[in-house]
């Protein structure tokens, strides 16, 4: 896409594949039209990837090029990003149009504009979109996450965490071949990442509710809630 700039969508935790997000926004660049992004796959971190479909170079975009977009998680930066293709549909070295600064790293889909700040990347758009996305200047429908926590974060899925509540240590049973464990606060902030451990030192955590995001060697991710007292 030749200098077409947009943002996209966001979602609510769900286990259904092939979810759709409809987006309308950045009207000065993209006109008053709705774009549809479909879930095409899931990345190695269990995050959903959404792409405008079909990607064939002929999606109209306000007379300034073709609109081909991708919404995906950037694990290095710890954020969701809305990317625009340069016009051939391969998303090699795409334009970063928007990124979200308010995250829940446990969720498998991004936040909507009402619970996160989606920042316009003015280095690319030169401010043509009119600023950060909000729930008043954009429309998001479909597979969008509208709460801070993802739905499936409360599923224990046969994992036992004990003692719970905990004071110094948390033990995990019911899973083998644990690869990494992320400790995540109730508001979605990543506290720490641990490697290959069934026993976690939580003595320095403040009192409150936390989540363990557990990844095994075969890429199975489980999320379990525990209380630090």
UniProtKB/TrEMBL annotation:
Keywords noted in UniProt: Signal
Top-rank taxon: Bacteria
NCBIfam families registered for this protein in UniProt: Por_Secre_tail (TIGR04183)
Domain Secretion system C-terminal sorting intervals: 161-223
Name of the protein in question: Por secretion system C-terminal sorting domain-containing protein
Pfam family, one: Por_Secre_tail
InterPro entries, per the entry: Secre_tail
